[in-house]
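#lab-general

N.A. 3:47 PM
ok so I finally got the sequence cleaned up, no stray characters, all 366 residues accounted for. can someone with queue access submit it? mine expired

B.Y. 3:52 PM
send it over

N.A. 3:53 PM
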Amino acid sequence: MNKIAVGVLGATGMVGQRYIALLENHPWFEVTYVAASPRSAGKPYADAVANRWLIGEHIPRSVAPLIVHDANDVASARGKCAFVFSALEMDKDAIKQLVVLYAASDIPVVSNASAHRWTEDVPILVPEINFSHLDVIAAQKKSRGWNKGFIVVKPNCSLQTYMMPLHALVQAGFPVKRMTVTTLQATSGAGYPGVPSFDMIDNIVPFISGEEEKTEKECLKILGHVADGKIVNAPLPLVSATCTRVPVVDGHTACVSMEFDVPSDKKPSLAEIERVWTSYSSVPQERGLPSAPLHPIVVRSEENRPQPRRDRETEKGMACVIGRLRECSVFDVKFVALSHNTKRGAALGGILNAELLRVNGFFDGL
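B.Y. 4:20 PM
back already:
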């Protein structure tokens, strides 16, 4: 099978590097185009990331000699790749405008950025949950007069700790009325060089700009439905979030409490909840997508799990690992969940989105 040529925007940053590393030897995609800021443009990729390659021992040989282009020069991508992964790290409004230019130039964009998450005809895609939101892409293209281009985005990395457990329960007939989420987010989520070491060593930072709003609101769009060419948000659950930065390199942890929106005699038992989670499977598993975890949700029975160092690589970093499921004295149940923020929560989650798009024919004819 001929591989699809892909580009990576923001290729020199932490998430961009993760894309480069994870796409090495991918069965469907091949990196043929890299772009970043003007200061990196014109250099071979290996030189552009010299002394700041952060992902593994080596830069993939096929990418190392590629000349880095200026990500603002959309025309330079034409003919070099069929679509792009966007890991751009720049002003939100600038990203929003730039990815539109790529899409308008017949280059689909699979983005990690928050810039278009609240554009009503752009899906915030979690393939196991809202694969049906791909139906809105036809309306997105039509309303803008685009031919082959379109935009799909990922949710904030913090949501990966609770979205699949939440969706599994909703899908099983146990809707959630309200919930509290306290996140303990890894330093890699701040990029590189990230939070100063003086702030992180022997410390917890109890505020991450914009994270609580994203954690509270994005789930409603993901759980929503497509109607009249746009995505209509779900009304529930109400989410109250506190987001903190902790001295862990990779792996976001969340402490979650949930109240079900069902009569008392219809609320699930702990055993039933665990059964719902461990049996959870969806389209990525059914279609055998290369980056999909065999088990999207993994439940640990040990009282001291999950832990970032021990559990973040579960299912190659693509599973939500849950432990400490128990009754809650305020709501109904509470638990601790963990996800890998730079894999499921960033680059590998973006690659899974692209795999879903590919098997649904969105890259045909590019």
